[in-house]
Amino acid sequence: ATTTATATARKARPRRTADVIVVGAGLAGLTAARRLVAAGRSVIVLEARDRVGGRTLNADLGGGKVVEVGGQWVGPTQDRLLALAKELSVETFKTYQEGKAVLVYRGSHQTFDLSGPLGPIPPIPDGILDAATAIQKLDAMAATVPVDAPWTAKQALEWDSQTFETWLQANALTKGGRFLVELGFSSVFAAEPRDVSLLFALFYMAAAGDEQHVGTFDRLINTAGGAQESRFVGGSQRISLLAAAQLGRRVVLGAPVRRIAQAGGHVTVTTDRASYRGRHAVVTLPPTLAGRIDYLPALTAQRDQLTQRVPMGTVIKVQAVYDEPFWRGDGLAGYANGDVDPVHLTFDNSPPDGSPGILIGFIEGELGRVWGQKTVAERRAGVLNSFATYFGERARSPTRYLEMSWAAEPYTRGCYVGFMPPGVLTSYGRELRRPAGRIHWAGTETSGYWNGYMDGAVRSGERVGAELLGGA
Ligand SMILES: Cc1cc2nc3c(=O)[nH]c(=O)nc-3n(C[C@H](O)[C@H](O)[C@H](O)COP(=O)(O)OP(=O)(O)OC[C@H]3O[C@@H](n4cnc5c(N)ncnc54)[C@H](O)[C@@H]3O)c2cc1C
């Protein structure tokens, strides 16, 4: 009996050593762990939060229904995310886009057709041509940027020496054109044109594709045929929840990593409660959070300076729940563009069966910074006012209001992604994926294709898995 009791105790004791210690149980960390485990490696995944999924999170609506408060959409060319979802039997459904879209600009309210040649870009008379020309130019420039080494583009230095704003001032000459390009830009980066390097913006456009399809600005902003085309049944976090369930006890929650030491041919990864030992570590945090871990010995100057220079965007995702999607009855898709602060962009975010009705809005960039400092009650009133201006007075009376401010999350600190101001890609871009001894780097910010997206996170997990299996 004593032997059995000892064996049980030994079995129950959590493992503290493995071939690879993965830091972070978002899509990147879980994908890396899956690949390594499939190849027979032992793995421990350390996750700071008491849940998996990182920047994806489902909110419970009751009755078995959920809505996503983090990353949610998936679209064509996001092949690796779709493949992972398929492995886990998570299905997709199309984002609701039937009916007219709404534009409210400078006090005038109009509807427009989403199946027109410019898709989701609203027909502002003094801006549409200007915006279309600017986007054409951007796509042509982006086509010259190699996604795995943007710093080698012929005009890399010239483009990395200016912000997107500088380029926009010279290339979008009308107020309407500027408004349209800025709207698309902030919906993609959750930052202002003045914050972001032109080269980084072009790289991000180039990254919106795959090995067979060149990346374009349109694929970033489009619903049909673009990054907002579909959603996951049961919410995007389900992918991480299922992947983590398969990994079982290898995933340790509530374990914020504070220090990674390398010595004597192994790594020691220390959380608040315990130390874990492995032959390699994989860090999947956005660069700025990776820079908050203590490394012994210290990392190189180049690597540390990279992590000093990749800030996160600012976004508050807001949603109002109604008994039914009343806008559908009015012939509206639930998609609005406008200049009514604080929400300039909305979608219909109802579950697949349309019940309950949910409107989603984004408070992005500077608006996110300003409105993030207000009270929930102030934000709620502002958001519902935006929704009511776009969709009518019924929008003022939701049954529930949900919001998630990602910059306020200690283990994310901003969204959607870490972006690069001028000078960073050309001087430090090479450091994104360069291993530091036994420490390897993953996370969507290290991806070529679909950098910043769930697909990029999955690709980075696969890449780091291959890196370790090749050399481990
Ligand atoms: C509001 C919002 C909307 C978005 N919309 C979309 C979308 O529609 N489509 C899309 O494709 N993408 C979208 N994204 C982006 C997408 O969610 C991310 O690109 C992707 O989830 C990143 O995965 P990751 O594994 O690289 O990083 P993360 O998900 O950030 O994972 C990192 C993990 O590390 C953990 N961690 C942090 N610090 C520590 C520490 N010290 N020790 C241990 N663990 C730590 C974190 O808790 C987290 O779980 C959106 C993001 C947000 C927030």
Nutshell version of this structure?
Pfam families: Amino_oxidase. This is Flavin monoamine oxidase family protein. The protein has 17 helices and 20 strands.
Give the tags.
472 residues, alpha/beta, Polyamine Oxidase, Chain A, domain 2, eight-stranded mixed beta sheet, binds flavin-adenine dinucleotide, 20 strands, seven-stranded mixed beta sheet, FAD/NAD(P)-binding domain, 22% strand, 17 helices
Structure commentary:
Pfam families: Amino_oxidase (PF01593). This is Flavin monoamine oxidase family protein. Its cofactor is FAD. Keywords: Oxidoreductase, Signal. InterPro entries: Amino_oxidase, FAD/NAD-bd_sf, Flavin_amine_oxidase, Flavin_MAO, TAT_signal. There is one protein chain. With 472 residues, this protein is of the alpha/beta class. Among the domains are: 16-54 and 236-299 and 436-471, FAD/NAD(P)-binding domain (3-Layer(bba) Sandwich), CATH 3.50.50.60; 96-125 and 314-414, Polyamine Oxidase, Chain A, domain 2 (Alpha-Beta Complex). 34% of the residues lie in helices and 22% in strands. It has helices spanning 2-12, 27-38, 79-87, 128-142, 156-160, 164-171, 175-189, 198-206, 217-221, 237-247, 287-290, 301-307, 326-329, 366-371, 376-391, 424-428, 454-471, and strands at 17-23, 43-46, 58-62, 65-68, 73-74, 92-94, 100-105, 108-112, 230-232, 251-252, 257-263, 266-271, 275-283, 294-296, 315-322, 332-338, 345-348, 357-364, 400-405, 439-441. The strands form four sheets. Strands 1, 2, 10, 11, 12, 13, 14 and 20 form an eight-stranded mixed β-sheet that branches. It has a seven-stranded mixed β-sheet with strand order 8-7-16-17-18-15-19. Strands 5-9-6 form a three-stranded antiparallel β-sheet, with no helix packed on it. Strand 11 and strand 12 form a beta hairpin. The structure holds flavin-adenine dinucleotide (FAD).
